[in-house]
Amino acid sequence: MDKPGIPRPTLSRLPLYHRFLAQVSEAGRAVVSSEEMGRALNLPAAQIRKDLSCLAEFGRPGVGYEVAELLANLEEFLGLANDKEAVVVGAGRLGQALASYPGFAAYGLRIVALFDVDPAKIGLEVAERPVFALEKLADLVGRLHIQMGIITVPAAAAQAVADAMVAAGITVIWNFAPARVGVPAGIWLESEDLASHLATLSYHIKRRGRKA
Q1: Contact at 8 Å (CB) between 43 and 105?
Q2: Where do the structural domains in the chain lie, given as residue ranges?
Q3: Which residues in 18-41 are b (16+ Cβ under 10 Å) and which e?
């Protein structure tokens, strides 16, 4: 879980800093300033310094941040250097796409299996990951000590799946279903509202169409 007391908006920005630092590190840079980070990320330099101070005291006035040191501390703080395993419930197109996405490896995330209630999907393999019947969720989560579950089912089934994950011992849930789900205290829930994002993009497309 996140460091006690760290604001959620700050936590959401830390991966942006990590990505930027990884890029400048690959370019061979040793030092970078908060002003440069701010210009690249379209964020105030003061906000960046405040966010990074939640980790520890980094940077030297007039010099900047040592890229390798800050990058290593961000990876440690965010747990990116640690391997994490997850399961996906919902072996439809979105679930299969997430299970097949190679980019998760850079963040230490490995999806080990998918689950579904459709007999036509059970027994298949997606990117060399098996698709199991949903009733086997608790057994696999318990045996492998899985902490993270990803929901990619239709809206009507989302709450039941979340309940099943919690009952199985999962403590971190990433919800892609177009529905609001409730979880007990102590469970970290992150929801991706793809429909809301699409509606926002559609609005901007419409506005730009009027200006053309």
Answers
A1: no
A2: 8-78, 84-196
A3: bebbbebbeeeeebbbbebbbeeb
- What counts of helices (H) and strands (E) characterise the chain? 8, 9
Q: Quick check: helix, strand or coil at residue 46?
A: helix
User: For residue 3, what pLDDT is reported?
Assistant: 44
| Whole-number pLDDT of residue 116 | 97
pLDDT at 4 over 60: no
Q: Which residue is listed with tokens 């908060």? A: 34
CA contacts within 13 A on the Cβ side of 38: 14
Show the tokens assigned to 189. 């829930």
DSSP class of residue 112 equals E
Q: Is the alpha carbon torsion for 127, 133, 136, 137 positive or negative?
A: positive
Per CATH, the architecture of 8-78 is what? Orthogonal Bundle (1.10)
Average pLDDT over residues 55-78: 78
Largest CA distance in the chain: 63
Give residue-wise pLDDT tens across range 41-62. Answer: 999 999 999 888 887 766 565 6
Q: Which tokens belong to 137? A: 């969720």
Q: Above 70 in pLDDT, residue 204?
A: yes
113: which strand partners?
87
Which of the listed CATH numbers 3.30.360.10, 3.40.50.720, 1.20.120.640, 3.30.450.20 matches domain 84-196?
A: 3.40.50.720
Cβ–Cβ < 8 Å for 78, 14: yes
Residue 1 confidence (pLDDT): 39
